[in-house]
Amino acid sequence: MPSVLQKPKSIFKALLDIVLPPVCYVCGRSCSSKYGLCDLCLNKIRLCAEYGSKNPYIEKAWSCSYYKDTIKECIHLFKYKGYIGLTDIFRDIMIDFVKKHDIDKNIDLITPVPIYPTKKRERTYNHAEILARSLSKNFAIPIDAKNLKKIRWTRSQSELGREKRLKNVKDSFLIVDKGAFSDKCVLLVDDVYTTGTTINECAKVLRGAKASKVFSLTLARGV
Question: 28-87 pLDDT, tens per residue?
Fold first, then answer.
């Protein structure tokens, strides 16, 4: 499989680009990529190596890319501006990473990190759930997007230092049906891993629901 950053174009797509040149989501330059990103912005994407985890409830925490340059800008557009079209490149980056590290081989269930209901109503979607559903569909792994809930409004983690992040998300997640996770190897999916406090808090309640192991996969990792 070719790299997601080197996808070949069809003849039809090439002809269409001549008539209606697309514009890069990030910089506004004309571009021919199926992802809506120009070559300059695509080349700024830095893929990650394999990562471990120092968090007590997570077996391993993988991230597919570094949270900088193009990916950082794209996640912001996707998360806060409604640029759902960026799902395509996020999906392909994550699928390539999962295949490379054989992550899908030991996973029983995929679960997105939830957002508070008020935020979901404002955005009309949960960005993590969109990523999780793409992985679920591609690898035919069941998804549970209803039994891990966020029950308390919290400030955005990006606004806070490490100590305040810990207090901010403490006791803000709840399992509805604990039996849904019992004896399952669960893969938590989110967009960005910074200090891992949100992921770890989710993993804590999953382990409390008798999940046998909890792993996490994020599109990007803070640098």
Answer: 998 878 899 999 999 999 998 777 777 889 999 999 999 999 999 999 999 989 899 899
Q: Taking a C-beta distance cutoff of 8 angstroms, is the pair 148, 205 a contact?
A: yes
Residue count of the chain = 223
Ordered by where they begin, the domains of the chain are 10-43 (no CATH), 46-221 (3.40.50.2020)
The one-character DSSP state at 114 is P
Which residues is 110 bridged to in the sheet?
143, 187
Cβ atoms within 10 Å, residue 133? 18
What lies within 8 Å, CB to CB, of 72 at 6+ separation is 220
Q: 82 burial class (0-12, 13-18, 19+ CB within 10 angstroms)?
A: exposed
Predicted TM-score of the model (pTM): 0.85
The one-letter amino acid at 60: K
Phi/psi at 152 (nearest 5 deg)?
-140, 135
The first and second tokens of residue 104, run together, are 């899908």
Question: Which residue from 186, 189, 218, 191 is spatially nearest to 59, judged by alpha carbons?
Answer: 186
- Based on its alpha-carbon atoms, the radius of gyration of the chain, rounded to whole angstroms, reads 18
